[in-house]
Amino acid sequence: QLADKFNPKLSASYSNAYSLGQGRKLGLATAVSWRKRRFDSHNIESDGGWSNIEFEDPLTGATHQIFGAEEIEQRFYQITRERTGLAFNVGYHHTNNSQHHVKALYSKYTDEEFRLRNEYKFAKGQVDVSSLTERSAQFFDFPVDKDTKDRLEVQKILSVTVGGELQRDTWLWSYNVGYAKSSEDVPDRIQTNFEGQDFHAGYKSTGPIPQLSLTNDLHLPNNYALEEVSLESKYSEDEEQSVKLDLSKTIHWRDSEVRVKFGGKYRSRSKVSQVDVKTYDGGFNRISADAFSIPFNDWSLGQFGPALSQSEVRQFVRNNQTLFELNNNESRIESQGDSYNSDEDILASYGLLDVTVNKWRFNTGLRYESTSFSTTGNRIDFITDEVNDSEQVVISPWSVNKEYEHWLPNLNIRYNLDETLITRLAYTQTIARPKFSDSAAFQLIETERTQGNDQVSVERAATVGNPQLAPYESENLDISVEYYPGDISLLSAAIFFKNIDNVIIQSEVQNSAQWQGFEEVLQPTNGESAKLQGIELAWTNDFDFGLLIAANLTLIDSNTELPNFADTTANITIGYSSDSINGRLSVSHKGKAFQFIDNGTSVYQDKHEQVDLNLKYYLNDYTQVYFNVINLTDEPYYLFHGQHQYNYQFES
b/e string for 246-256 if b means 16 or more Cβ within 10 A? Predict the structure, then answer.
């Protein structure tokens, strides 16, 4: 609807089983797929959200404080995504109770994106006090940036596993050897920034789509001069090797069946991130946005103004790069700050006992995991001294090594009251390790020394990684009842309780002893413990005349806000099936979900309700056609800041 594009997709697969004689069989399954998707995205968001902003009256010197948006951005994206996938699986079975397999997967994914953005930086200007209402404000003498981002991202994944099972006497041996490698390459990202000054505009209503009141001069391209060009190449690689061995034995003793199982797994993973950034802030010969301007009326969320031509901007940068003035300090900071190496080695072993006695089944075990983690990056000190008119960048390496271990017990109990009613109870302990991007060794420290009113002041701020992050640790209790009245019908209810320690959140830590004197320090940290409990209800019924109804509901209550957790999720599907027709109408609901904190206020994703339709028609036993419609009601993506009326991001 926004892009007016057709998106082709092709796929093919083949599978077969072959008899090799003497009880030997060979199975083969392979597939190839290709898809190209071209679409647009229209976005309006409030950078920094809504908060109290202070303005100094240039005439009287009085300070005015208003509640409003520091900056509102209009964004337009043109996106082309292309994916090619290959899969190859072969299995070999022998009558001596042995089987072996090789599974391979390759995927190449390209994401080409061109973005136009208008940034209305209200907080850097002055406020018209007479215009203030709860839902409107006018500003003057503020800057506006018009920028472009042009980048191609190529992701590749290769995964190969070799495994199998061998029966030797009364013991079953199972093995698996794996290798996986993924990479992400951004070869030549071009970002340009055009800046205009002394504009007069504002907003006259809030809500999911803030209504901006824009003057004509904001849309004149010759009011914007090129201020900065950034060229970036980024390459990251994630490689993993693993080997696993399991042994199990089943013993029949009286009226019970006992299975003993134990094994171990070793996994080694490494990630490398390399960034090369060149930032230019001069030598542009006073060129304005007018040189690249083209008419643009395709933005659906208000007035956007002229667009900048992707091809013209790209050609200009490539032809004139040698004439631009390189900002060496900024380039070094951006390059070294995002470059790091991290390694993680995990050795795990477990023992398990599975006992079946009449209607009871008990499964209990203990797992041990030992983790060795190391990361190497840089500490970057960027010192700006306006008193002496100097800049200095100091880069020093930073390495961290640590080891930790966990003992993780679990217990699962199942009791069959009869053939249709099953009860279950489970107690488990689990962990989830930090993301490499959070635990990487990097520190970017900015120090600014200025002089005013015969006094020298120093302001310091930092953004740092946290190699000392502990993994999430969760203690879980699940209890459920399942009723199977017949066919594929199911009625179930479950309750669950979780105690989660070491929740990882983005925090402001300038008040800690390590960062005393800093204005702001952002760092991933282990936050408070979280306790949550919930209930899950599900019903599925397939009626004799072809009608299918399926519904589920999950309700969650927590003592703290956890990212992406919605207190309510629900789905309902109504379908019909016959020899020739299969149809499904599905409705899904997700309640509002906390995302993160900005400017001391929580950001939430708004509730989301989506309707999808899937239809299949069988022409004969060998051929079918299908028709799918996704998101029939055209639900947008909306984040709000504190209250629903304060936009943080609206995207269609």
Answer: bebeeeeeeee
Tokens representing residue 506 in the block: 């983005």
Measure the CA–CA gap between 634 and 611, rounded to whole angstroms. Answer: 9
| 154-194 pLDDT tens trace | 999 999 999 999 998 889 999 999 999 999 999 999 999 99
Kindly report, residue by residue over 527-551, the tens digit of the pLDDT: 889 999 999 999 999 888 899 999 9
Cα separations in angstroms, 334 against 152, 273, 459, 461, 599: 19, 13, 20, 16, 24
Cα Rg, the chain, nearest whole Å = 30
- Which run of H or E residues covers position 152? strand 136-168
Tokens of 152: 């191609």
Closest CA to 508 of 496, 494, 517, 519: 519
Q: Distance between CA 380 and CA 155 in Å, rounded?
A: 29
Q: How far apart are CA 146 and CA 211, in angstroms?
A: 19
pLDDT confidence of residue 56: 78
C-alpha dist (Å) from residue 567 to 502, 625, 635 = 21, 38, 20
Whether residue 460 contacts residue 398, with contact meaning beta carbons closer than 8 Å, is answered with: no
pLDDT (tens digit per residue) in 96-114 = 789 999 999 999 999 999 9
Gap between the Cα atoms of 56 and 62, Å rounded:
6
Mean pLDDT computed over 15-38? 95
Nearest to 41 by CA among 86, 6, 88, 76: 76
Does residue 27 contact residue 102 with C-beta atoms inside 8 Å?
no
Q: What is the DSSP-derived secondary structure letter of residue 22? A: T
Report how many helices (DSSP H) and strands (DSSP E) the chain contains, helices first: 3, 35
- Phi, psi at 509, each rounded to 5°: -115, 20
Band (508; pLDDT cuts 50, 70, 90):
confident
| 492-495, long-range: CB < 8 A, 24+ apart | 492/536, 492/537, 492/538, 492/539, 493/535, 493/536, 493/537, 493/538, 494/535, 494/536, 495/533, 495/534, 495/535, 495/536
- The secondary structure of residue 444, as a DSSP letter, is E
What are 386's two structure tokens? 């306006």
The torsion of the CA quartet 590, 592, 594, 597, rounded to 10 degrees, works out to: 150
